[in-house]
């Protein structure tokens, strides 16, 4: 099972065997769920030193329980398209762990969505949410619905149908969804409207990522991308480096990518490329973010249209070809497994100094190993992209207090949270024998708080 992420860790035979057995049970019990297996493998492997040092977690069966969702809901989502034809999609919500707070995690609308993807995302979310230091448990949801090419009316009918089933499972104190791939401001608005209509009450804390005029938080839109850059900035500072004058490549052109580009540029970097699922654009002069935002957020077009307005830029077809561009800093902000071992080797050969994961699990286990062996500063997703859910929790706090903070107040809190995540992860890595390894450190720091809460709450 060892991929080498843990190469310098202290472990003992018993802990290694225990972790291996739990992993094998996960694979047996969740056949064909490769993304879920991958996420579990990464985390479990990093936790071996914890069980070696503190057998109480083994004795209480924490691991056996934490890998099994508290609840997994699947449901039918029927809706009528613009041609009057009935369509049926599948809806999912995994309520993975509520030891430290209500389930919290986004909704993804993408044709690739299945139980494996929802469970990998929900499992990761447990540890990410714990790392933020806020009282939120782990959950995730979504549907195999494809929003691309759908009219506003179709999106509304689909989201209303989705919420007509989901509403009975969520609530401000039980489970609080948000956006993810394919679920942005428009979808959250429709989802909230339908929830409010069914419940007959204004429970604004039931969803986060809401519009500012109806209970949203300033800085939530920017939070994941900004937070990722703040996290990478901490890594760079530790090595005596900064964003100033650096060449940056960002994959994706959605919510996370757009605000990662914005903050990296504000900190003095030149972002030369970004992408969508069809290909990437390269602009030697630095990406013109206004054009990207208009094309992707307003007109919902393809990134290839960028070159119509910027003829000196180039467009290259192919989803993950973007990693062949030489850069100092790489920020994968599109989707899972977009950097494989070969792409990681090319990035290293081209001299990449830091990688910050804005997307969830964008690097394969083999790619992570390449970065760690090459001493690249590596910010794993559950730490580097935790800014989004952290500000979602701040949105919940504002909704509960019926009060709203300014943009700068939320941004200051976000910066503090990202710095704390960095420091706590570094501290845990050092304490458990892997100094400087943020993959190990973030998994352990995230795990310990949830494990202690589970210990305190008995076998449930
Ligand atoms: P968006 O839907 O806003 O944007 C996603 C971007 O990635 C688009 O450019 C899209 O291209 C591309 N993309 C999506 N799926 C694929 C795929 N299968 N293959 C290739 N390209 C793809 O999503 P977000 O920006 O919100 O999310 C991006 C990543 O960040 C995801 O991994 C998400 O889980 C993670 N994340 C998001 C948070 C948030 O607050 N939004 C919080 C934490 C993590 P196209 O336009 O062609 O579809």
Topology:
Elements: H1 13-29, H2 34-53, H3 56-59, H4 62-66, E1 71-80, E2 86-97, E3 103-109, H5 115-131, E4 137-143, H6 152-166, E5 175-178, H7 185-199, H8 220-238, E6 247-251, H9 255-266, E7 270-275, E8 279-282, H10 289-298, H11 306-309, E9 314-317, E10 329-332, H12 341-349, E11 354-356, H13 365-373, E12 377-379, H14 381-384, H15 387-401, H16 407-431, H17 438-456
Parallel strand pairs: 3-4, 3-5, 6-7, 6-10, 10-11, 11-12
Antiparallel strand pairs: 1-2, 2-4, 7-8, 8-9
Helix pairs in contact: 1-2, 2-5, 2-17, 5-17, 6-7, 8-9, 8-15, 8-16, 9-10, 12-13, 15-16, 16-17
Bound molecules: NADPH dihydro-nicotinamide-adenine-dinucleotide phosphate.
The site of NADPH dihydro-nicotinamide-adenine-dinucleotide phosphate has 26 residues, from helix 9.
In summary, what is this structure?
This protein is of the alpha/beta class and about 450 residues long. It has helices at about 15-30, 35-55, 55-60, 60-65, 115-130, 150-165, 185-200, 220-240, 255-265, 290-300, 305-310, 340-350, 365-375, 380-385, 385-400, 405-430, 440-455, and strands at about 70-80, 85-95, 105-110, 135-145, 175-180, 245-250, 270-275, 280, 315, 330, 355, 375-380. The strands form 2 sheets. A 7-stranded mixed sheet has the order 9-8-7-6-10-11-12, with helices on both faces.
């Amino acid at each position: 099972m060892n991929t080498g992420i843990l190469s310098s860790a202290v472990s003992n035979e018993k802990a290694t065997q225990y972790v291996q057995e739990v992993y094998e049970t996960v694979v047996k019990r969740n056949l064909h769920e490769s993304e879920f297996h991958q996420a579990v493998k990464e985390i479990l492997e990093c936790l071996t030193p914890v069980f070696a040092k503190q057998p109480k977690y083994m004795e209480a069966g924490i691991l056996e329980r934490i890998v099994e969702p508290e609840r997994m809901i699947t449901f039918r989502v029927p809706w009528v398209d613009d041609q009057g034809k009935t369509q049926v999609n599948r809806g999912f919500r995994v309520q993975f762990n509520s030891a430290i707070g209500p389930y919290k995690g986004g909704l993804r609308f993408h044709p690739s969505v299945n139980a494996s993807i929802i469970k990998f995302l929900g499992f990761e979310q447990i540890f990410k949410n714990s790392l933020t230091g806020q009282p939120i448990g782990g959950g995730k949801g979504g549907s195999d619905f494809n929003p691309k090419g759908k009219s506003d009316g179709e999106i509304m009918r689909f989201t209303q149908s989705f919420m007509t089933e989901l509403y009975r499972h969520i609530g401000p104190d039980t489970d609080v969804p948000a956006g993810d791939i394919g679920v942005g401001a428009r979808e959250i608005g429709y989802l909230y409207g339908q929830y409010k209509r069914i419940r007959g009450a204004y429970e604004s804390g039931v969803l986060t990522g809401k519009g500012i005029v109806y209970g949203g938080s300033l800085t939530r839109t920017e939070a994941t991308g900004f937070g990722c850059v703040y996290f990478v900035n901490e890594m760079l500072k530790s090595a005596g480096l900064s964003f100033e004058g650096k060449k940056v490549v960002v994959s994706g052109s959605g919510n996370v990518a757009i605000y990662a580009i914005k903050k990296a540029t504000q900190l003095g970097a030149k972002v030369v490329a970004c992408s969508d699922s069809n290909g990437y654009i390269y602009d030697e002069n630095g990406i013109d973010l206004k054009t990207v935002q208009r094309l992707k957020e307003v007109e919902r077009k393809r990134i290839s249209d960028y070159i119509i307005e910027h003829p000196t830029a180039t467009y290259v077809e192919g989803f993950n070809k973007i990693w062949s561009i030489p850069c100092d800093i790489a920020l994968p902000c599109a989707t899972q497994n977009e950097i494989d071992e070969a792409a990681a080797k090319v990035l290293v050969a081209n001299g990449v100094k830091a990688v910050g994961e804005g997307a969830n699990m964008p690097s394969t286990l083999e790619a992570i190993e390449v970065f760690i062996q090459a001493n690249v500063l590596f910010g794993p997703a559950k730490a580097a992209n935790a800014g989004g859910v952290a500000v979602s929790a701040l949105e919940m706090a504002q909704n509960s207090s019926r009060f709203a903070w300014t943009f700068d107040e939320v941004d200051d809190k976000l910066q503090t949270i990202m710095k704390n995540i960095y420091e706590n992860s570094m501290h845990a890595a050092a304490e458990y024998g892997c100094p400087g390894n943020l993959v190990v450190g973030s998994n352990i720091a995230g795990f310990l708080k949830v494990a202690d809460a589970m210990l305190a709450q008995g076998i449930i």
